[in-house]
Amino acid sequence: MKLKYYLSQILPYGLVKYIKERRYFDLEGYNTNKEKNTLSPKIDKFIISVQGFGYSGSGAVIDLLREFEGIQVWGAYEEESQDNLGKEKIIPIEIDFLRLSGGLFELERYIGCKNFFINDAAIKRYITLLNWFINQQNPRSIFKSDKFKSLISEFLDSITDQRINTGKEYQYNPFLKCERETKNNHIYFLKELTLSEYRKICAQFLRNLFSLVPAETLVLDQLLMDGDLNYERNKAYIPNHKIIMVYRDPRDVYATGIIKDINWIPKEGKEFVKWYHRMHSDLVQLPTYPDALSIRFEDLIFEYKDSIEKIENFLEIPAEKHVRKKASFDPGISKRNIGIYKNLPSEYKEDLSIIERKLKSYCFDPA
């Protein structure tokens, strides 16, 4: 176990969080003083976005796809600890700088806006998100590299018309005091772009980014926006992509929230039902979204062969490419994560009854 990991486990959480937040992506350091990237790939890689929200089991599909030859799960790394089976944990990194607040999808909402206060705030929110995202990465990650940071700076150059260096901390937007932008002393102005022009710039940025990985097929975790399956937008950003949406028995999701004490999963039955409907609205939209497939986590286990065949057909991957069967995803092991709600104390019986009644179509009961 490495010293850095050990220290992160024994130091107070607040101190570790503070240290991480103090690291700052120096945009200006990668702006004009570095050579521009020469990457200009014309061919779009095949991108598979595995989606799911709130302990949906989407990680099982990512583990499964890792077993196929020619497919790379991008952003995955080995955690510096072991699971209870004595194996190294493989943690997929969620690619957050598109879908989260402040990301590319939100930034496009301000394209065409002439309000310079909003311009400045939008860019700074994006830089803040990138800073946070980079600091979450494993030191060996491509997202920590100068290449990635240079691509970011080139992208920002493409969408900003002017930046003014105030030479000191200057709170042009008072609310940004909470963003800890203590080293960003600039005021930003967005270029006057059409939505189409902005999306083309984003597509090239992502094309360059994906080209940093040699594999022709990339799997990314939670790449696209939750609850907002906008096919036209997603296709403009990533022309060659498909989505696999994973969902799980809501009773087990509820139980996971109780067992792990997840503060963003409601503990009261009626509130959980409302939350589950909201968080899984993508499943309702899915039939109208081309190039999308929904998979039930439980089916991956109890209908293992049929589920794999369905995924192979959807992705148009030959079955012989599945060369490392059960090396990452073993249904025999994952089976223990099904029906965990049955072990909850009796005090949760009424809430589980409400969930089962209101979300019956999502519940799984093996024959």
Summarize it.
The chain has 15 helices and nine strands. The chain starts with a helix and ends in a 9-residue tail after the last helix.
Question: Would you mind describing this structure in some detail?
Answer:
The chain is an alpha/beta fold and 367 residues long. The protein has a domain at 1-30 and 91-212. The chain has 15 helices and 9 strands. It has helices at 3-10, 13-22, 58-65, 104-107, 116-135, 146-159, 195-210, 231-237, 250-259, 269-279, 281-285, 297-302, 304-315, 331-334, 349-358, and strands at 46-51, 71-73, 77-82, 88-91, 160-165, 186-190, 217-221, 241-247, 292-296. Helix 6 (146-159) runs antiparallel to helix 7. The longest helix is centred in the middle third of the chain and has 20 residues, at 116-135. The protein is globular and about 65 Å long. The chain starts with a helix and ends in a 9-residue tail after the last helix.
Name the helicity range: 25-40%
Rg, Å, rounded? 22 Å
- Tally the beta strands: 9
Give the overall form.
globular
Put simply, the count of helices is 15
The secondary-structure class comes to alpha/beta
Helix-strand sequence? HHEHEEEHHHEEHEHEHHHEHHHH
Q: Report the average pLDDT across residues.
A: 83
CA(first)-CA(last) distance: 44 Å
Strand order in the sheet with the most strands: 2-7-1-8-9
β-strand amount = 5-15%
Low-confidence stretches: 78-88
Most strands sheet:
5 strands, parallel
